[in-house]
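My current task is to audit a protein record that another person submitted. Alongside the sequence sits a line of tokens, each denoting a local backbone shape. Please read both lines and tell me whether the tokens look consistent with the sequence. Do not assume that whoever made the record got everything right. Thanks in advance; the entry in question is below.
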Amino acid sequence: MRDFWVLIKAEFLNSFYVNRIIHEKNKKEKRNLILKLAFSIALAAFLVYYFYYIVNMGLKFFHSKEILQSVMLIFAALASFFIFIRILSLTQTSMFRAGNYEMIASMPIQKNVILMGKIIETVIDEYAIMFLFILPSIIIYYQNHPENIVLFAFKFLLAFLFLPLLPTILAISFIILIARLLVRFKNKDTLFLISTLALSLFIIFNSRSLMPLLEQLETSAGGITLFFKQYLPFIYYFVETITNFNVVNYLLYVAMTFIPFFLLTFLFSNLYEKIMKRFMVVSTGNRHYAKNYAQNSILKALFKKELKRYFASAIYVLNTSFGAIMLFASSIATLLFGAGKVIETMGFAELTAIVPYFFLVFICFVASISCTTNASISLEGKNFWLLKVLPIKPIQIYQAKIILNMIIVLPITFISILILAFSLKIDWPFILLYFGAATAYSILTSILGIIINLYFPSFKWKREIQVVKQGLSVLVSVFLNMGLVILPVMLYFPLAAWNVSLNLYMTIVGVCLLLLILLSYQFLGKKELCNE
């Protein structure tokens, strides 16, 4: 077990930049790492406050404190489901990373310990997301049921420590089984990507089978608690550990997470080693033939280059398209369930009128976070010097990257809008508003993504995930883009008290977006390519 704890310690220090900040000798790189950590903390604090604000407003709307425990159960379930889908869709790059595995496998470490380390590595990555989901409801519960804050925090940490483990284990079990089936194929990486994404969408769509069960639930908090105790006991005991701590219940909760963990590592350790050896095999073709190359305009040639680079990276594709895929899945759900019926079943019939506005915000949110440009400069890596020596203007390079972002994000967004328009029976002015808002946010965030990446480039990366998911430019861009969506929404609430027309307010927001697009594009046109 000593080897296991050494692996966990190394992964923890590397996940939160502690090692790199301590040992980095380059002052500029150290400053960027500190800024990256600071932006991560600021973004987390902002999201926690926003979720706290939304949950608190909802509780005030219902004028009830009795449903606080139910709120905690629901948020824990949503977090677990989101992590399960996220791991199922995105974890291939960490679970089957050949270079990392070669280094660890060469050490005198047992096979099951290596698999344990990979699982915990994935769990550590998901703690931050789980924390963002759970913390707002925990804070509100504590405010309404105050007790010794040290004791309450201790109980929360005891429970929270094991919460992401079970959804992670379930998702990794699916991943290993899928990899076992596809590992012999030549295009195994592409097939694996498509299979895990298809399975994720299948699970999301088939969650509608729970609707008859949810319709039978009583609207009281007791009915919801009983449902979780019967069907999702590990979430029920998570909340029980915080609200009514009991040693027996806590041991049951720990057993529900640890027993599957040890079973997975015991049963799949040999299989995981075989899969990894197959993933490290590189196939090469022996067909060589002459080919005529067509001449293209500068912009078209640059766009083709960007398109090939984009689809050459699985983590890049998934990280930037996941939001659009979730929007598409949501639009299909409204077509299958009917948004009005779902809301009435949940007891929110009076909120049916604002469903179009909710999806307007959701569409803007997806268009803003699905940004391909905030890492596009950094992903040039060691080949960045080629762009600098080509006889082309920097703005042409930027335009190709902006067009790629629009080509990737807007088609699936527009299809989702048409499905929503049909399922929600939205009037054509609102449909045009959806199209306009999605296009405006896509253009604006793609321009801002390039500007931010020019200020915070990172070319000395070893793995693409370091740029696509952990890069400073990505964190700054996500923080800014989310603010561009959330800020107008939050500003409207105090203005609504002064009877400000919603249509007038949306017109003002639209004009501001157009001005931001023009100003940012003008600024980008004057920017030269950054230094390596």
Notes: The two ends are 43 Å apart (CA to CA). Residues 43 and 479 are 6 Å apart (CA to CA). DSSP finds 24 helices and no strands in the chain. Residues 211-221, 342-350 have pLDDT under 50 and may be disordered.
